[in-house]
């Protein structure tokens, strides 16, 4: 029931915040929030590693390009000519199935936060697809060379045939790889809710 209501909200507010039914948060969580926020701003290492790998392969991209239809959101790594958007999702903030561990204190709030992040991701993907972009999502724990290889293939295929949409190319591609780099718990590519 809550899930259905959530999806309805997502559909109704494409340009604003994705979810409005934020559970109450109790004071003691503030310190944890501050710690997470600091990590969120600092830890862009997985994204930098991917960018380095893409650059090494001769690919040129832009960073922090605005999402069409929502100026408050940005694409992590954007190939504007090929219209390929790449996101490196933080394992904690985006609920990685392998690494997300929910804090014990205020667990309801944290669950809500991660779910609303994921809903926002889906909404971002939809906005991009509607504007003709292909979306690639990688987890921060994934091997940057594996991710870069898949991005390279997609970018080249879209430049070669930009007007040939297929289901495979327009659906969000979640990178799948068995090779996992060393995991850093609670690192992130997102910001805390204060700004969103
Ligand atoms: Zn992970």
TrEMBL record:
Entry keyword Nucleotidyltransferase: no
Gene Ontology molecular-function annotations: endonuclease activity
Keywords: DNA damage, DNA repair, Endonuclease, Hydrolase, Nuclease
Polar residues: bias regions: 186-196
InterPro entries: DNA_mismatch_endonuc_vsr, Restrct_endonuc-II-like
Superkingdom classification of source: Bacteria
Spans annotated as Disordered: 161-196
Alphabetical list of SUPFAM superfamilies matching this protein: Restriction endonuclease-like (SSF52980)
Database matches in NCBIfam families: vsr (TIGR00632)
Family of the protein in this entry: Belongs to the Vsr family.
Protein's recorded name: Very short patch repair endonuclease
């Amino acid at each position: 029931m809550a899930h259905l209501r959530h999806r309805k909200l997502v559909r109704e507010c494409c340009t604003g915040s994705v979810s409005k039914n934020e559970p109450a948060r109790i004071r003691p969580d503030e310190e944890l929030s501050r710690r997470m926020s600091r990590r969120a701003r600092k830890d862009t290492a997985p994204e930098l590693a991917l960018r380095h790998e893409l650059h090494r392969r001769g690919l040129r991209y832009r960073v922090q390009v605005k999402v069409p239809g929502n100026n408050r959101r940005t694409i992590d790594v954007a190939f504007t000519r090929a219209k390929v958007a790449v996101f490196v999702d933080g394992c904690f903030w985006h609920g990685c199935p392998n690494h997300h561990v929910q804090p014990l204190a205020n667990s309801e709030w944290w669950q809500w936060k991660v779910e609303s992040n994921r809903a926002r991701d889906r909404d971002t993907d939809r906005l991009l697809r509607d504007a003709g972009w292909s979306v690639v999502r990688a987890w921060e724990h994934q091997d940057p060379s594996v991710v870069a290889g898949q991005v390279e293939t997609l970018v080249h295929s879209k430049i070669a045939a930009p007007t040939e949409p297929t289901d495979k190319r327009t659906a969000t591609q979640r990178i799948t790889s068995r090779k996992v780099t060393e995991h850093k718990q609670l690192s992130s590519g997102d910001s805390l809710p204060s700004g969103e």
